[in-house]
């Protein structure tokens, strides 16, 4: 009989889809999903639903009898998994700490429920080293921690050579304030003033879409910026292969699958100088690290990286090799699926 997993989390997210797909493919698991139905826009209603949700989750467990519960984010769905009453629980930390924003009034509460989730979980996913640092500092039993990214599908995200004589940059992060698309546009405004030719493709959707379109117009670069809106993940590899520089400027980061996808497609990474990116990128070795919101530095480093094609080409070859060795979905998801089977076996004995 197939083993069943109850997944708690936003099942529409690319990250979650990769996780579940890998478990089906390499572990032959059957996946049942549960998520909050209220949008983030209705804050109070969502919080109310969250507090009532343990009843719904326990009902599902009673009816479906999953062998295991897995959940994303240690401060939300991870906590719900911890109090679900399931015999076998795995939770994943999504961000560098998941305790974000740090100035939030809910910070002490989030810290408390995260500690409880860490204690109750039988397996904790750190998708990268930066997350494990936080776990260790939080007093987590590190024997329960698996430090391994889910990886990306290297048969889809394949390298291609871009010999363009201009900067063809791409951004693939959600259009939310924390991803600082406005700083990226302003840096390209500087490039435009210097008479440097470029094209900039901004993939995705989010609350800032109209604001960013207006900003591109104000900076007089709207004819060089393409906003694709939300696209199917199947169209992303081609857009990455057509680009030569990948830009990502988040103010906080756990492990970015978007960065791995870009590296796999031979896009040269120019990213924010934060711990989540420092795990994978060394400045002017295999990419550029940029101070948050330093638009002058971003503009200068874009020019530097484009004026050094030989250096850039060596870096993208190294990056592809790195992704093949460390972020291969076929290898990593097999390890994760096997770990789940072992965990279920040990918890049943």
From TrEMBL:
<dbReference type="InterPro" id="IPR001296">
    <property type="entry name" value="Glyco_trans_1"/>
</dbReference>
<dbReference type="InterPro" id="IPR028098">
    <property type="entry name" value="Glyco_trans_4-like_N"/>
</dbReference>
<protein>
    <submittedName>
        <fullName>Glycosyl transferase family 1</fullName>
    </submittedName>
</protein>
<feature type="domain" description="Glycosyltransferase subfamily 4-like N-terminal">
    <location>
        <begin position="47"/>
        <end position="124"/>
    </location>
</feature>
<dbReference type="Pfam" id="PF13477">
    <property type="entry name" value="Glyco_trans_4_2"/>
</dbReference>
<feature type="domain" description="Glycosyl transferase family 1">
    <location>
        <begin position="162"/>
        <end position="321"/>
    </location>
</feature>
<keyword id="KW-0808">Transferase</keyword>
<dbReference type="InterPro" id="IPR050194">
    <property type="entry name" value="Glycosyltransferase_grp1"/>
</dbReference>
<dbReference type="GO" id="GO:0016757">
    <property type="term" value="F:glycosyltransferase activity"/>
</dbReference>
<dbReference type="Pfam" id="PF00534">
    <property type="entry name" value="Glycos_transf_1"/>
</dbReference>
């Amino acid at each position: 009989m197939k083993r069943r997993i109850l997944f708690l989390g936003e099942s529409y997210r690319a990250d979650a889809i990769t996780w579940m797909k890998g478990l089906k493919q390499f572990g032959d698991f059957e996946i049942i999903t549960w998520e909050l139905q209220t949008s983030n826009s209705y804050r109070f209603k969502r919080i109310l639903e969250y507090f009532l949700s343990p009843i719904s989750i326990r009902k599902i467990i009673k009816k479906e009898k999953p062998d295991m519960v897995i959940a994303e984010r240690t401060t939300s769905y991870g906590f719900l998994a911890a109090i679900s009453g399931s015999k076998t629980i795995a939770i994943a930390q999504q961000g560098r700490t998941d305790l974000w924003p740090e100035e939030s009034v809910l910070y002490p509460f989030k810290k408390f429920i995260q500690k409880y989730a860490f204690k109750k979980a039988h397996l904790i996913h750190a998708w990268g080293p930066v997350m494990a640092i936080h776990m260790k500092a939080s007093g987590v039993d590190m024997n329960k921690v698996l430090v391994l990214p889910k990886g990306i599908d290297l048969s889809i995200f394949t390298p291609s050579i871009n010999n363009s004589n201009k900067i063809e940059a791409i951004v693939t992060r959600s259009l939310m304030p924390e991803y600082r698309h406005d700083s990226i546009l302003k840096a390209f405004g500087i490039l435009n003033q210097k008479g440097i030719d470029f094209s900039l493709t901004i993939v995705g959707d989010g609350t800032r879409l109209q604001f960013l379109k207006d900003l591109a117009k104000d900076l007089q670069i709207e004819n060089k910026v393409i906003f694709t809106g939300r696209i199917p993940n199947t169209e992303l590899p081609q857009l990455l292969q057509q680009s030569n520089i990948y830009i990502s400027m988040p103010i906080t980061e756990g492990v970015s699958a978007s960065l791995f996808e870009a590296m796999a497609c031979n896009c040269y990474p120019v990213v924010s100088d934060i711990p989540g990116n420092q795990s994978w990128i060394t400045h002017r070795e295999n990419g550029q690290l940029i101070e948050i919101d330093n638009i002058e530095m971003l503009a200068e480093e874009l020019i530097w990286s484009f004026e050094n094609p030989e250096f850039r080409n060596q870096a993208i070859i190294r990056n592809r090799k790195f992704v093949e060795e460390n972020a291969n979905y076929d290898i990593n998801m097999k390890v994760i699926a096997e770990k789940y089977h072992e965990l279920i076996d040990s918890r049943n004995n």
